[in-house]
Design brief:
The structure holds two protein chains of two kinds. By secondary structure, chain A is mainly β. Helices cover about 0% and strands about 50% of the residues of chain A. Chain A has strands spanning about 5, 10-15, 20-25, 35-40, 45-50, 55, 60-65, 70-75, 85-90, 95-100, 100-105. Chain B is mostly beta strands. In chain B, about 0% of the residues lie in helices and about 55% in strands. Chain B contains no helices and eleven strands. In chain B, the strands form two sheets. In chain B, strands 2, 4, 5, 6, 9, 10 and 11 form a seven-stranded mixed beta sheet that branches. Chain B has a four-stranded antiparallel beta sheet with strand order 1-3-8-7, with no helix packed on it. In chain B, strand 4 and strand 5 form a beta hairpin. Chain B is globular. Classes of the chains: A mainly beta, B mainly beta. Chains A and B meet through strand 4, strand 5, strand 9 and strand 10 of A and strand 5, strand 9 and strand 10 of B.
């Protein structure tokens, strides 16, 4: 199975900060990667699909980039509602595999 | 409004069996593949299984292959997960999730249920 390594596992940031989360695949996965946001006690929410496509209804401060093995999720200006845990998910092949998650906390 | 409602989660002994259900509404169920995803308490997400829109294709995580079976009843707008030979490490909140792509298997999930908790303990 493809291993997805996310970094950092957690970070502290302030409202207005630019935040970058990375995800590395153990082998090339083209652009077959999505990003999800999960808040405590809630189901995950799809933010980005196919590495760089913004899901309908998601604010434009979220963006994704990358191809092959290295991917990035960027929040251009962190808002209070963005404090959450973020996961990448590769859909290049089965079994689908998630990264370990990045918890974004308030500084 | 799209709704996915899981049920069937209980406390079960190691080695036991359980069937989870996911009742859906608000979209044409038999046009979309469906997934199960789980989350152990305080841990990250783990994809569990996929079933294609017509039920003819299924995939599983290595950790559940041979023990879990995914199925669907398009006449009842329902998804199922039969779980056998349960282990302590299967303890988790189990979510059902809808594929984004009609008649496809993109691996992206646009709607999720709220989950049903399975606890495997003696």
């Amino acid at each position: 199975a493809i291993q997805m390594t996310q970094s950092p596992s957690s970070l502290s940031a302030s409202v207005g900060d630019r935040v970058t989360i990375t995800c590395r695949a153990s082998q090339g996965i083209r652009n077959d990667l999505g990003w999800y946001q999960q808040k405590p006690g809630k189901a995950p929410k799809l933010l980005i699909y196919a590495a760089s496509n913004l899901q309908s209804g998601v604010p434009s401060r979220f963006s994704g980039s990358g191809s092959g093995t290295d991917f990035t999720l960027t929040i251009s200006s962190l808002q209070p509602e963005d404090f959450a845990t973020y996961y990448c998910l590769q859909d290049y092949n089965y079994p689908l595999t998630f990264g370990g998650g990045t918890k974004v906390e308030i500084k | 409004e799209v709704q996915l409602v899981e049920s069937g989660g209980v406390v079960v002994q190691p080695g036991g069996s359980l069937r989870l259900s996911c009742a859906v509404s608000g979209f044409t169920f038999d046009d979309y593949a469906m997934h199960w995803v789980r989350q152990a308490p305080g841990k990250g997400l783990e994809w569990v299984s996929l079933i294609s829109w017509d039920g003819n294709g299924t995939y599983y995580a290595d950790s559940v292959k041979g023990r879990f079976t995914i199925s669907r009843d398009n006449t009842k707008n329902s998804l199922y997960l039969q779980m056998n030979s349960l282990r302590a490490e299967d303890t988790a909140l189990y979510y059902c999730a809808k594929e984004t792509t009609r008649f496809g298997e993109s691996g992206y999930f646009d709607y999720w249920g709220q989950g049903t908790l399975v606890t495997v303990s003696s």
